[in-house]
Each structure stands twice: as C-alpha cells, then as structure tokens.
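Z., the sequence and structure:
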Amino acid sequence: MPQMTLYAPAIHCEHCIETIHRTVDAVPGARFLNGSWEARSFNVDVDNGGVLDAVATALAAAEYPLGDAAEAAAAVAAAADAPTHPDYRVTRTEVGTDVNYACPCSCDAGFALDRSKAEQAPESCCCGRLILVGPEASSKLRADLEDASRYHEVDVQTVTMPWGQPMEVALATPRGGAEHGSGDTPSLISFLPGGGH
C-alpha cells in the first residue's frame, strides 16, 4: 500500500506524535513518516490492509483511535475555541498561599506565594510553563525572560487571595507545545535584587 495520511482527533501535543511514532513503528510492516499535532494527522507507510488494521488496533490501545479528516478538523476547531485561561485554585498556607492549576501536560502545577519575600522568582512546571504571582506579575515575567520569543503566550488573570487581596497571575506557555517532563525551561534573569542567576 502507498503512503497514507491518518487522523487521530485525540492528538494535542508533540508528545502525542512521539507516542504515535513509537506505536506505529512497533507494528511489523508499518513505518511512521511524519506528523503534525496541530493538524491531528500523521503519515505512515504500510505493507497492506492487514497491517493498517494492526496499526489502528495498536493506536486505539494507546488511546489515539483513528478518525477521519472531519473529526480531526473538528478537534482542531474545538481546541481553538476552548478557553485558554487555566482555572486557578487558591489555598492559604502558613506563609501566604499556593496558586495551583491543572497543567495540560498532566501535572498539578503552581506557585507558592511567600508574603515575607519582597520578590520571588517564577516557578516552572516540568513542561517548561512558567508562573509568577504578585503585583505586576505579567510585566515582571515578560521583562525577565531571556528569550521571550520561545513563548507564544503569557496568560494573565487576577485571582483573589485568601485575605481578600486581588493578585495578578501570569503564566507563560512555550511555543511548539509543552510536553510532560521536557524540562526545557529557558534561563531567566533573576527576579531577586542584585540580579544574576
């Protein structure tokens, strides 16, 4: 059989494409060629229809069932229309508050605000997302990123602290899809007085 394009609407990041690559290549007679997580599609080369059926079964077991182009396009449109703001959970601590969110990489990530500190550095999820909470958090986060071009978005929200004070939360998301455990966090200019790393 010739090269073909397949669609899996459950694809949502580059990590998904890597999983599909490994899954397809593990099927005898199938070869992964390339893929696009943004289009929810990938190209394969298979020896025959039986191999294609085996690929479909393996992908379904890996939680990437095949769909058609219309389903993939609908998944892309739904993702574009989905709200980009995370839902933050604010919890009082002995020194301030924890501001957490469910990161798309599957982590429960967040920021531990310590009210005894005048300035705090942003905290990072394993996927490279950076979060900062405090007065003017978005401008501090944007100004102190050494390579701001590596981030496609800084989401800004105001949340109310347990003591009633509204506080800005800034969340920077890396370009190209952040994946669980990538740890690809660019260096920051220090937020602490005196600078340095």
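The longest strand covers residues 151-160. The radius of gyration is 21 Å.

Let me know what you think.
H.
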